[in-house]
Queue: 2 jobs
Job 1
Amino acid sequence: MLEDRACLVSRDYSRSCVQKGSWPYVSLGLENAEIQQMKRPLEDINRVEEIEICVRKVPKRPVVQMDTASPIGGIVNAALAQSATQFRSRRHAGENSNTTSLIGAIGRDLSISCLIKCSRADYGAIASLNRSFQSLIRTGELYRLRRQNKVAEHWVYLSCQLLEWEAFDPSRRRWMRLPRMDPNDCFVFADKESLAVGTELLVFGRDLMSHVIYCYSLITNTWTKGMKMNAPRCLFGSASLGEIAILAGGCDLNGSILRSAELYNSESGTWTTLPSMKKSRKMCSGVFLDGKFYVVGGIGGADNRLLKCGEEYNLDTRTWTEIPNMSPVRTGAARDNEPPATSEAPPLIAVVNNQLYAADYADMELRRYDKDNRVWVTVGRLPERADSMYGWGLAFRACGDRLMVIGGPRNACEGFIEVNSWVPSEGPPQWHLLDRKRSGNFVYNCAVMGC
């Protein structure tokens, strides 16, 4: 790979076209070409690299080709062949190798139609082919076209170390490491919330004197700081839908519980204040369901009691409606050896195919919300090894058409993070272990990015 390439790829791979494990990828090397001279150093991520390629015969060596049976394999190999032909013809004519076309044989529109259906794990290879491919990805145009055509690929982003984030591709079952965050000590040890929206991962925390937001961009593969909400907060409920996200409730710097809500648009980078909820609440959860935003459960009221209700926000009418008994969290007295319910994690809820599910960590049960009768129904069990500390450290997320439970067993010596998946449309709950990795910590933060 190229240094500072603005795409997620494993750090373990060399720059040659080799295969480690079962992940094929393509560098700038062509099978019968050698890079003789770098005309411009690869130091600036915003600079387009100029690479002069001199084609000459070299001894044949084994090269891993991308699988031509897959969409990306056919596209990349076709583009490589086209690029090699262009390099030869321009070199022969004495021209600079300034390739700007996509796949000439099928035209730009069909090229883009194919590209938006490719896995974004392959976009690093695609960006290395020529300037047009590179521009499509670096400007974010390709992701906007994917969204317009309702094409989304969902990856899980999680942090099990204070400043380190990883992305997990559930389809290919591969991990990718993000650049390390570089905040101050106050942010490191403060409570954090996370939210993925559009092509951004937002991490909310606290600086010495204020709340602060760090933003990871999938387009640039970098972290930035400085985004400001209209009413900064923590311990809020949130959810995203495409390029927008809604954050509701939470606490301000003084610890006051809020009723206010805001909408964030990742395309414009703007925050819009929404009408306030009917009840103040913190430690709540948020989801989008049937095109509406719901905030569920939490702690509120003058006596900081556990709230059983939820609230529905209609984006068209800009109004809130209270929904009784929507929270799946128990509200009775604490059972033996358990803390009060107000000490537990916010409700572990997720939506798949417009159906709301909840994870009950105490009874290890999976529940579904009956929207017609407004009651919770037990539908099965959670994975057996999904350990947590009163719900903390266990991630329960929707990831496209599947539910994900991310957590794992641990003891005094070691621990593991296990990624379990169930697709509700395939039948009763039956969890499949996608991957397992060693980790000494719980899952601190987790978000799912679909783009």
Job 2
Amino acid sequence: MEVKGFDLPRKQEGCLANKDELSKDPCPQYTKSIKGQDSAGDVTNIQSQAPPPKDLTLDVKLDPLKEEKQRKAASNKGASAPRKRNYDPDLFFKVNGKLYQRLGKIGSGGSSEVHKVISSDCAIYALKKIKLKGRDYATAYGFCQEIEYLNRLKGNNNIIQLIDYEVTDKNLLREVMNGSMSNKDGRVKDDGYLYMVLEYGEIDLAHMLSQKWKEMDSFNQTIDENWLRFYWQQILQAVNTIHKERIVLSDLKPANFLLVKGSLKLIDFGIAKAIMSDTTNIQRDAQVGTLSYMSPEAFMCVESDENANTIKCGRPSDIWSLGCILYQMVYGRTPFAEYKTFWSKFKVITDPNHEITYGPVSNPWLLDLMKKCLAWDRKKRWRIPQLLEHPFLVPPVPPQLSLSQNQNCQLLDLIAKECSNNQDALMISTQLSQLLRYPMSQITSQEQQCKLLSQISKLCCQLHEHLSKLG
């Protein structure tokens, strides 16, 4: 019997199948056609035929045996069918029994891939697929540990949210969740994968900065301080969240921050490490991090200082990386961008006498902020709670002037405008205005009051003298 023109299931047409569709027969019309063959009597009925010749008796006896074998094979095939894939892996990913349709690859590196996917309820996500086979257990352990960190940080708006995950190597995942690693020096032999379904972001900070600087260069613009404050504050809040959970990333870079619905969120905890509850630093087994953002102590994490103490990485190491990110946001490049090789970067970053070059900026608080983050001595670097209260983010409010002080200052401002061509008169007006704005609460003694009045009186006489010459 010829089978013609049956329709393909929806999932083969590129549409995301729902659970009901997946539970149905994948080819219902095809199944119906096969049943039709049985009912129509197209299959020859052996009992209805004439008795066979004697020399064919043996063949007739063997035919039922063949039929029995075929029936058993078909029965076994039917029993194992549910264990086979009932979806097209070229079109879908399956994580914990849920299907996610592929919309395109976002990026890849090594044995890792990130895809844009859509769920059955039409939500867009990013799906990270990591091949574990062939990796050393320490690296595979680190990838699985990222799941543990993201689960711990669920609900924080400045951390990327983990929607779902699956690790095909259940033993490895069990070791991570139990905080143990039995085969530290070995490699993963089984063909295992790690799948993570995450929030989907529009663009990371690295690409955002690149676009921003191209735009500013084309229009000959300078950095917008309000834009800088807005995103710098979000960066600090995100890192502050992981520091509160005693997690140090030590690989902070612009690509670690993803813009999700207008807000920057911290992503990628692949080489993060938790700090023990009774310490503030961690000792790493090897140097990790991106060279341009690595702190001096990250380069020297396997060395000792002058007191024979092992140099450790901790929260200050992340502060240094944040300082490099801020420097890049301000100047469009990292502090050590001119040093191209590993050894040249290593030499200047680990040199306590090397001075970082800062270009001119209009706001002195911005310069001070960068220096607070990029202090070579990690003990002198500000912590995030301090940075969140820095005057660049929280500008000091000038003291409110009394009515008489305000009127005097307005008068001096008018005089300064009239004396714009006379530099001496202009300077005196400016000095007088500053003295009149001086907060009286800071004058605690009579001697200070007399000194201030004397300065004001002297400047008034000088200004009167210059104005009389102009008149």
